Amino acid sequence: MSTQPRLMLVVSPLMEHSPAFDRAAALAKAEGAALHIVAFDYLEGLATAGLVNEQALEQMRLGYIERHRQWLEDQARPLRRLGLEVTTEVTWVERPLQEILIHLKEQPMEVLIKSVDHESWLSRMMFTPLDVHLLRECNVPLHFVNKAAHAHPRKILAAVDPFHYDGRYEGLNDRILSEANKLAATCDATLEAIYAYDLSSITAAEYGYGNGSMFFSSTLARQLYESQGEAFDALAERNGIAPEQRRMIMGDPAKVLASYAASHDIDVIVMGRVRYSGLDKLIGSTVEALLYKMPCSVWVVAPQQID
């Protein structure tokens, strides 16, 4: 059995050459990986055309799939000339999420790469986009390419939270830093680790302080800052992150990460995601909030599966 790593690039049904193509090719070249490019086609207007008979509609659908397959092959040809192993696939399916998950189960991939689909705020409120479904249900690392000034990332930022209290996510921070270290080494990029902490989201009870006003006294706030700093340093130390590569900034995590990425020309931010159920799914997470706002691309690491 081949041990060559494999990357999966999911592309738009609209035959557009997005920055995700260049990023996927660069990563495959740097890692010596095979690249599988797949398009999940479904055009509402074509699928529901009621003015033609079923046979004519089937011919139109097959014709579109064939044109898309040829277009993907045109994109793959120059990559193969560079020595990359590239395969392409086009599948007609209305709801691609389950097809993607089946593909990943049948053909294990190192990472799934995809351009961010910029849906309107109203659309996201009414319908959960595919990108968010993938964030919530895909166990393979996800690389959402938003902007790609450089095909090879030059600056990588790993966002961690060493004070996550849910035991289900034990080890997630180490997985984030491991993934970030691997990506930085593959691309010969610089790496920083950042902990954006928000005291306003922490309750006094979590730290055994019954009096909220006492909790937010200057002394206790300083003690909390120091304990968080120690936890962050210990996490960074065991993952080989040097002191000069560490950043600890107070503020709303989503705002801090977006601002830091913009002001420091970050190419990729590596983050973890958590699992939500029930009403919590309506609230989402930091990575969901950032997906459509980040000035750079996002690499998302899922928590370890628990059987």
Helix and strand layout, with pairings?
Elements: E1 6-11, H1 19-31, E2 34-41, H2 44-47, H3 54-81, E3 86-92, H4 96-106, E4 111-115, H5 121-126, H6 130-137, E5 142-145, E6 155-159, H7 172-187, E7 190-197, H8 212-215, H9 218-238, E8 246-250, H10 253-263, E9 268-272, H11 280-283, H12 286-291, E10 297-301
Parallel strand pairs: 1-2, 1-4, 2-3, 4-5, 6-7, 6-9, 7-8, 9-10
Antiparallel strand pairs: 5-10
What gyration radius follows from the Cα positions, in whole Å? 22 Å
Enumerate how many helices there are, as a single number: 12
Average of pLDDT: 83
Assign the CATH topology of the largest domain: Rossmann fold
Q: Give the strand line-up of the largest sheet.
A: 3-2-1-4-5-10-9-6-7-8
The figure for the number of domains is 2
- Report the order of strands and helices: EHEHHEHEHHEEHEHHEHEHHE
Overall CATH architecture of the largest domain? 3-Layer(aba) Sandwich
Task: Write structural notes for this entry.
This protein is α/β, with parallel strands linked by helices. It has 2 domains: 1-115, Rossmann fold (3-Layer(aba) Sandwich), CATH 3.40.50; 150-307, HUPs (Rossmann fold). It contains 12 helices and 10 strands. The chain has helices at residues 19-31, 44-47, 54-81, 96-106, 121-126, 130-137, 172-187, 212-215, 218-238, 253-263, 280-283, 286-291, and strands at 6-11, 34-41, 86-92, 111-115, 142-145, 155-159, 190-197, 246-250, 268-272, 297-301. The protein has a 10-stranded mixed β-sheet, with helices on both faces. Mean pLDDT is 83; it is low at 203-216 and 277-284.
